[in-house]
Amino acid sequence: MKNEKPKNLKQEPDLILRGIGVSSGIAIGPVFVIDQHGVPIPEYEIPAAQTEKEIKRFHNGISKTQKQLSQIKRKADATPSGINEDVGLLLDAYRGMVSSSRLIRGVEKLIADSHLNVEAAVNREILGMADSFAAMDDDYLASRADDVREVGSRLIRNLLRQHYNPFADAPARSILLAEEITPADTALMDPERIGGFVAVLGGAEGHAAIMARALGLPAILGVAALVGSVTSGDMMIVDGEAGEIVLRPSDKTLQHYKQEAQKQARENRKLKLLRDEPAVTTDATEVRLEVNLELPRESASALDVGAQGVGLLRTEFSFMNRPQLPSEEEQFESLRDLVKKMKGRPVTIRTLDVGGEKLATAFGDMLGVSPNPALGLRAIRLGLKETKILDTQLSAILRASAYGPVRILVPMVSSVTQMKQVRARLVQVEKKLLKRGIKLPPALPPLGAMIEIPGAALSSDALSKVCDFFAIGSNDLTQYTLAIDRGDEQVADLYNPYHPAVLRLIQFVIAAAWRANVPVSACGELAGQPRATALLLGLGLRSFSMSPSRLLQVKQEIRRLSLDSCVAFAEKILAQSEEAAICKLLDEGISSIQPQSSSARRKK
Ligand code: PEP
Ligand code: MG
Question: How far apart are CA 170 and CA 30, in angstroms?
Fold first, then answer.
């Protein structure tokens, strides 16, 4: 549903900026620019034996900062009007400062001689450099002191990898603006207080985007022109569907968007009427609809839309924004509460999928610095290396399973061996709990694998022998099949779950699951796109899990479809070799298919 622009927009002085609309809806409110500077800086002495490691940490921080600055510069350069030329020059200057020999030598010396931790060493050196600039007679050079401090705080933030709530003071209904909104930032957002968010960086299927949809917050990412053009308090309209931002809108434009927002609210109220209706096709095929949750406390949003269960709980979000890992007790209590609140509807709890873009401070240096984080130590690879963390989580999940039906889902599985290893650990953990006198249900919860790596998809026949269920993760499956970073706005136009290769893998997994009689669901973002519903049903999928904000739209779609036409539609789509042809068919919709009657098919 695209918004029609007010007819006389040309005469109005609105400034329109475009980006990737990642979460639909209209937000209208004052901008709150997230101040990423006010992070408290710890100061402590490091053991002499650790100086080398600390210096390495310093250099990793410099590389990360350089990379960030280059990314932002590329965005600024891409602004068509070239209004950001000055910003580009400034960013070049920042890059020079962060790798200046004075900073590097100074910090290395403080770490080696005074055994100071790297954040404190950078802070001291930066303050010294800023003072020298400030003391200069030349006005221009003196004003560089602020730039030095800016570079220093960016470097320190990167070293700390620390999250605090940088928008705790945002006025009600404001639109948050930052260079980059991390998944951990989104976990702090309260949709009752925040209107929406926009950022310079980020792609459509990164976790910030997924969280925006889960929270029902309109959001636009990858907006190059935000660099340097907005300040806190500016009025902004975010149209998440169109991927458009109107900055400092005229009264007329404001009026138009207010009416649009009211129209959308009316449509949502109509959808709500479907809450207790069954998800069934016109030819009586029942479909299971569950939700993806990021935090156990979100159970209300699942019940609000009449979900039949939780198809995916992304537990990693409970590990973010905190200095220490949650204890078994803490994990158990929040999982138990969720299981109880779901009142007998199954809860699929995924073990930690931390790493890659999903960083959690509590892990400290455990995740290391990977040259290629999406391919590095993340998810179950980390769990099978740091087995204490995995066992603690399994223990909490097993204990919660005494309060209602639970399933355990393993992320980023790439081999049969990994599933066997996890099952063996689960059995051991169960034994220990029974020894502790803890009462558990007689059978272990079903143990399933996320199918989100092409290698796992192609091994699904073998995996079906060691898994109790499959959950297809189309987000990562697309990322790894096409070798496209799902969170990188520079290649966002190439990220396409409707690529024939991705669809064939999905078809293969569903067929393998049917052959082995293993339940299969899809919980990637594809499952929540009404546009994909007919195709997935036609491929044989009968269980979908998605953001609560999408569930009723998908249900509405299912209730309009007949399975016969879905099968014919899927066949036609799978016969295509180019994404454009597939997307055209999807846009035309299932009505472009003339299904053969079942009896005609049988005769063939
Ligand atoms: C996926 O990859 O499709 C998925 C559901 O997991 P996540 O988005 O958390 O990586
Ligand atoms: Mg995934």
Answer: 9
